[in-house]
Amino acid sequence: MGGLLSQLWWGGDPDAVNPVSGLTRRDVYAVQKSWAVANANPVATGTELLRRLFRAHPETKEFFKMIRNLPEEEFPQNHQFKAHVINLMSSITLAVNNLNQPEVVVAMMNKLGESHGRRQIQEKHFDDLKGVIVKMFIEVLKLDDKTLGSWGKTVEFWYKHIFETLKSDEPR
Fold this sequence. Notes:
By secondary structure, the chain is mostly helical. It has helices spanning 4-10, 25-38, 42-56, 79-97, 102-117, 123-141, 145-165.
C-alpha cells in the first residue's frame, strides 16, 4: 500500500521505520488507537494492572509502602496508591501520545529510568510488568497479533531507554 493516496493519508510511507523508535506509522496508529480504549477509565485500568502485577509477582508490592500491608480490596481507597496509578497511566499516555516525536519519548523514558533506579527497581521488575501488561491486553482488549506486535516494539523502544539510565546496586 505505497500509493500516493496512502502516502497522503498516513503523512508519508506508513511502513517506513523510524530510526529512533523502530516503529512505523502503522505501529504508532495501532498503539494509540488501542491505548485510547485501555485509557478510557485510567484509574480502573491502572489499578487492575497493578493488582495483576502484585498477584503474579508478590515481591513487587514491597516497592509500594502505601499499600504494602493492605488487602487488595482496600487499594482504591488509598490516596497515595491512587496518585501512583494516575501517575503511571499519565506517563503511559504521554509516551503513547508522543510516539510521533520519539526523541521526546527517549527523554521521558531516561527520566523514568533515573527515578525508578533510585528506588532499586531493576530490569527484571520492568520485564515482569511487561508480561502482565501483555496478558491483560490479550484478555481484556482482545488485541490482534499485529497490534500486539506494535505494542511489543513500542515497549522495547521504551525499555531500551529506561534501561539506559536505570541504576541499581544489585545485579540485573
